[in-house]
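Continuing the series of single-chain predictions for the mutant panel. This is the parent chain; the variants come on the following pages.
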Amino acid sequence: MSQTPALSPATKTPIIGEEAILARRYAGALYDLAAEQKAADAVDADMRGLRTIWQECPEWRAIATDPRLTNDEMAAAADRVAAIAGLNALTAQFLRRVALNRRLSALPLMIEDYLDIVATHRGEHRVTAVAAHALTAEQHNALTSAIARALGGKVELTVTQDASIMGGVIVKIGSNLIDASIKSRLERLERALLAGAA
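Parent structure:
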């Protein structure tokens, strides 16, 4: 896989180096085990559930990143999350191991890396996009179809909102970023005007 910086879903800041590399290793090891046990799809579903819990439960994020908790306390919290989420045994064991190793802060990266691996094995492309406003179903389908035609294959498109881009869309495909936002166009225009005035 590429060594490009990942984005932390909680902070939207680039994460490079050891944590991103470690997350890929954990995700790869999990996929290997899941494939052996013919549980890759079940773990995929679990990972999506864990992603939602991470995004929607600040209490879980606080526990997962609290340096004051012991390894056993981290593991107990992970076990509670696994039970509440109804995770299968393999995913629950994985979450417990991540907690015992005090790597829960990298869980969002591990989740995304695992989903990427599964998508690759399915011949799919996972694409993320940022739009200024929520897309209608028709707009979402049109964007998905356009990306699928360009990439040649199935596309799983996830769209988030960020009003600061003003309009247009920013699409991330792997390490490639296509910035077609109004904010980006205005910034390019401003730079051109400043260069011309110099």
